[in-house]
Design a protein that fits this description.
By secondary structure, this protein is mainly alpha-helical. Helices cover 52% and strands 11% of the residues. The strands form two sheets. The chain has a three-stranded parallel beta sheet. Helix 1 crosses helix 2, helix 1 (7-14) runs parallel beside helix 3 and helix 3 (42-53) runs antiparallel to helix 4 (55-66). The chain is globular, with a radius of gyration of 14 Å.
């Protein structure tokens, strides 16, 4: 089963000063599942990488995508429709988080890799009681 990633863990892997950096390195060392990146997360990750760590780090990340080291999950119309419901129900969630949730539901995934415990822990997915929040 693939691991669906939110923005935070992808950024943390690149930034040695991030509080989640070592935890993410340890987590990834023990995993061999496909890293699945929602297309909606990409602008957030690349913006953070470029603005905080520089263009070289952003280019390295994009290179890893181009080399298919991570899979990109496209946004589907059904995901956008589900986001509308999620945005109404969970007023503290933004569109990107809602797309991650909608994709996880559509793919029937039990876990989301995220550093955002505050937002993702309140969500009650359509296909299970809660998501397992990793790492």
């Amino acid at each position: 089963m693939p691991l669906l990633f939110d923005t935070g863990p992808l950024y943390a892997l690149a930034d040695a000063d991030d509080a989640w950096h070592q935890r993410m390195l340890d987590f990834m060392e023990k995993r061999d599942e496909t890293v699945l990146v929602p297309v909606t997360v990409l602008p957030e990750v690349t913006y953070l990488l470029r603005s905080r760590l520089g263009d070289r780090v952003e280019r390295s990340f994009v290179g890893s995508l181009a080399a298919r080291q991570m899979a990109i999950e496209p946004l589907q119309q059904a995901d956008v429709e589900r986001c509308e419901t999620l945005l109404e129900r969970y007023r503290d969630l933004g569109f990107v988080d809602c797309t991650v949730i909608a994709m996880a539901e559509r793919l029937r995934l039990s876990a989301i890799v995220t550093t955002d415990r505050r937002h993702f822990s309140i969500v009650r997915p359509a296909h299970r009681m809660t998501f397992d929040l990793l790492p």
